[in-house]
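Quick question, first post here. What does this chain look like in 3D?
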Amino acid sequence: MQNSKKPMEFASKNQVNGKDAKAPFKVMVVDDEEEIHTITSFVLNGFTYMGRELQFLNAYSGEEAKKLIVENPDTALILLDVIMEDDDSGLQVAKYIRDEIKNRYVRIVLRTGQPGYFPEKEIIAEFDINDYKEKTELTATKLFTLTYSSIRSYEALVNEHKAKNELANINKNLEQIVLDKTAEIKEQHNAMMQQSRRAAMAEMLGMIAHQWRQPLSTISAIAGNVSIALALDEFEQDNVADSMTKISDHAKKLSHTIDSFRSYFKPGTQKEDILISTVIGDTLSLLQHATEQSNISIEYSYDNSITLNIYRNELLQVFLNIVKNAQEELADASIDNRIITITEEKGESEHRITIKDNAGGIDEECLAKIFEPYFSTKSKNGAGLGLYMCKSIIEDYLNGEIVAFNKNGEACFEIMLPIK
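> Answer (accepted):
Ran it through. Tokens below.
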């Protein structure tokens, strides 16, 4: 028969005494016989698992059970009668829980007084229930054992679900952390790139100022000679034409220098097909005055320079940094025959450019740190970014490799660029 009594809830001793306690496990008893509810609560009185007691929820029909499970989705165990208001009420409750509200965690144990009416094999195969018991076989000990194993299974499922959610959140947070850190590193990298370019610009401006002095002085002298010739009425058309040609040549040289300077400090946005020898030639042209002032000879040789699809200005920056460092080391070296040697070698899969100087090599303690940011062997004026940016450009922008080593007392830098 159907009973409309409200669900009974048994409070734990800790709750009664007003003490803090872990939330109890909810056990729902679904049966239209009052006696079953009473016996179940009596047998399981004092039951605990992992320090948590039981809270009983009572339903006397299939419809009450459906409503109660919606209100209490964290129910751990349902002891479910089969025949109540209808012959298959319990089965309809199980189907509702699994298929409609998609609760896969609550453990469902069918209890029936008429086992032959619903054969166990068919029920287990068709419905997603966890156990099937006859009411007569559920002694106090077996009911206790059944409850213990069911709640342990429920707790394991819930903990697994929590762990998966926590792992998903960790992965999501980790992904965001990686993205944020990557953006931060990229921002720092760009800042160092700009800092390196500004430092190089200051040096280049000084070198260009020196390079311009001689051609400007020559232009001034030629113009002065032409003015004197006009004043003394010694004007000769051939001489003036020759003077104008010389002025034009020097002006072109100045224009080329400033064009190279502007090109260098304009970041490359696209790769272009260019001869490596052209980039090296631009490097030596920009540093010509500095090397000449330091009495440095440049030896540049190649059997067959190669055209690569590269960021021209970035590679130019690499060559400028390395050759400028060599020039500064040689300028301070106490030797007479100062030489910077540049060679190109074409391999099967890579093109190798070697730049070396005879200033005495690199301190062995510095070799391991030479490409680190803000590490400098220059006591006062070094920002420590030049070689770091060289490595970054070669590896990140040009997909190549750069190494530094000493050989026969010479500092050597080798740059390997992929041919394809």
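Residues 267-420 form a domain with the Heat Shock Protein 90 fold (CATH 3.30.565.10).
The longest strand covers residues 338-346.
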